[in-house]
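Dock zinc ion; give full complex structure.
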Amino acid sequence: MIKGNSQNFEAFWVKYDNYKIFEYNNEFYIKPSDKSEDNVYNLFDVSSELLVDFFLIGKEVAENWDHRDIHCELKSKEKKYQDLVLEFVKKYGLLGEVTYMPINDNFISDNKVLLPGMNGKTESSLNEYLKIFFEYDKKIDFNKELSKDDIIYLFGKNGDGTATYLNRLNEYALTFSERYSEKISRILVYAKLMYDTFADMEKYFWEENENQKEIYAHFLKDFKPCNLAFEINYSEKAILRWNFTSLKQAIETMLGLNVTNDRKDVKICKRCYKPFIAKNLNSDYCSTTCRNVANVYKSRARSKEK
Ligand SMILES: [Zn+2]
């Protein structure tokens, strides 16, 4: 980490010690393994590594992008991408999409979910919404209204206790449950979106042509993390605790904090476009190899000009 870069931030998230990938209805999902244990950790202890690891998945997807596979369903069936996702999730936990998407925080007691739509809000019943994340579990019938017992079942043995421990709403018991699953293809699509966004942010600053700069700025306007909440804890020093709705929201916030910092921790290599943790302010390349190659090109360009 670059010196002088520390802010007193904390944000807690949950990861299990093991996860499994499984197929359901011809789609691949990831969830905690049976008998795995959950752990709580501070996202800001690992924020730079987390960003780099997630962007690396996105870069892999972006470089092999196929416009016919826009939702990454084909990629999600390939072992290469499944392994990338598994490795990331084992280190940092699932993305927490179930609590990321709703506009209404208390969607369990509301018994409906308000979602941001193309033209304003759209509404979904609770059972239809939770089906996205728990459908594989045949103990629950998602075609009818869910009972209190159904919800408690979905919390699993860990979800409720962890949500209480972290002082979060009941809804987080779903995110932290060992029964909670996410679609591999959706994680891949999101990783690509985040990598592309970060690459555009970097290119905006590299670009010298004003018209081109404007194009990047235009795309970057679409990047708007919402629903942020935080509190300040006073102990020996004041610590800002971010109450993220999800790992997704954490990633978006960390990306925002990174790009607006004069001492950017995470950068994209100017030669190979790989994300990396910068050792000092002036590092523009991920490795000595990339720096040397770039310097050779630069001096060739210079001698041509002469
Ligand atoms: Zn490089």
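Observed: The chain has a mean pLDDT of 92.
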